[in-house]
Amino acid sequence: MDSSKKNSIDNGEVQVSRRGFLGKGAALGLAGAAVALAGCKAEGGNAGTGASTAAAAPAHAHGGSEVAPGQLDDYYAFISSGHAGEARVLGMPSGRTLKRIPVFNMDCMVGWGITNESKAIMGTRPDGTLKYTTGDTHHVHGSYRDGTYDGRWLFINDKLHSRVARIRMDTMECDKITELPNVMGMHGLFPDKCDPVDKSVNYTTRVFCGAEFHIPLPNDGHDLDDPAKWGALFTCVSASTMEVMWQCRVDGNMDLVATSYDGKFAASNQYNTENAADLAGMMAAERDACVFFNIERIEQQVKAGKFTTIGSSKVPVVDGRLAANGDPKTALTCYVPVGKNPHGVNASPDGKYFVCSGKLSPTATVIDLARVAQWFGGALKDAREAVVAEPEIGLGPLHTAFDGKGNAYTSLFLDSQCVKWNVDQAIAQFKGDKAAKVIIEKLDVHYQPGHNYSSMGETRQADGKYLNSGNKFSKDRFLPIGPLHVETEQLIDISGAAMKLVADHTAYSEPHDGIIVKREVVKTRQIYTMTDFPNAVTAETAGVERRGNKVHVRLMSQAPSYSMPVIKVKKGDEVTLTLTNHDKVEDLTHGCALPTYNINFIVNPQETKSVTFKADHAGAFWLYCTHFCHALHLEMRSRFLVEA
Description:
The protein is mainly β. Strand 27 (487-493) and strand 28 form a beta hairpin.
């Protein structure tokens, strides 16, 4: 260590709040602030959750979307972003953007894809560069306990590179990414809600992922001219370790995934059960399928060693294709015929039904899970007998949400509408009741809706308050911004007898699915724990360490200064810069940017991040704070000197 470590930073008691901290700084005066603020401590408790005292008051008059200044939204909305590769957090009903969570994309504000820690999560090549810098997120779903969200994790897919990521809900940051083997176009995913065998395990333990594209297995350059030999795999990932547990080969192209509340079944709606390789072939059959996976049987077969592997992957693979599962009593899968080229499968909050939408059929198919269980037990002659309703609801039905009151809400892409219909009435109609009134109401949306999702609608606590319609085109809804328009997220009040469109929210292209979660479920951290970071820099370890041409710069920050005013290295050095934020003030984040070296990241209170780079050009460079932190924010910098 050299003498530069002597610029240590106080690490005392928790400070009260950012507002109080900045107020103290102003009182001390600018001349002495740089010294005095380092010792400025709280005179009260800690910052708690950061909610104002007004937060307990009603956020808004129900039936609208306005949330008054100083008030909080009732819900969080977690949505995908499409080819932006991130997840997004909105407040509902206001529609205010709260955060963009980088996942599969690089983000120079937080340093995602720049810091060593984020690169380790994203995955790198042998030379240390990122393996992928692009992504395509479609679906976000939360982890469960007792049939509702537990506020622990979010899971999101990358269709482009067949990856699944996990986001911690306490920090709203990605902590794991897994690439699935032998899979292309991983589109739908969904966590389980409890263990399929052990009922005492009533929380999420697995994440199920459906692959959309058929590829050669293994995809190693063979069988390129014979798509008839290609296949698709359904994948099970451990929620806790994010390791791939097993895969199941299927017929057809998988779209979305749903799971049962009792843990027994996962399912994916399938188009192209014809297993064709061209558009015409994919639309030849009159019906496609919703394929159900008997999780207990699959895992018993894997445990018994009755599996194969593909290529260099060691993941167990079982055969779930129709031809290999003719006997229901031993079958791993059940293919329930549904409307042509279905798009979407969703579980009703009462745990009884899965609903598939036809897309090329104007119908929604209601599947009774009890009858699926009967088929696996050999009590049904045909899997089609599990269908208990198939109402005609409109043109281009895609996705279905629920209100917990027996009603379903399906997006109609071609009609540019949301249709509200009653599940029990649809079942009665299917049984022959000609007086059954299935369709309750249709509401115009603008325009051509894709996904829709309701407040708490994919849990047993569906509350029937709001429905969000994600529309693929906006056209005349907003100011034009060139050839590519913003998309429209429209908020619909479904609490009354009639649906009411209450707000248009803009959305940067191209979000897909999402969930709306009560704010009480989400328990966020405001400050990290420094000891959670093994490489945290303290007064004892701060400084510059050299080992040959490898230099480790260990730096601390506390507003408004870094612990070393001058840092010297030599041209050609491999430099690792580790920065720990020693502030304990809620929201007092520091940035670290180094001009001409492509380095830019932030560290939150008590957090540590690091970057590694080659000092390949000489000169004087100001390492500076990018995130406003103090009245002397602009003065917060160090001289980074690279000797020729």
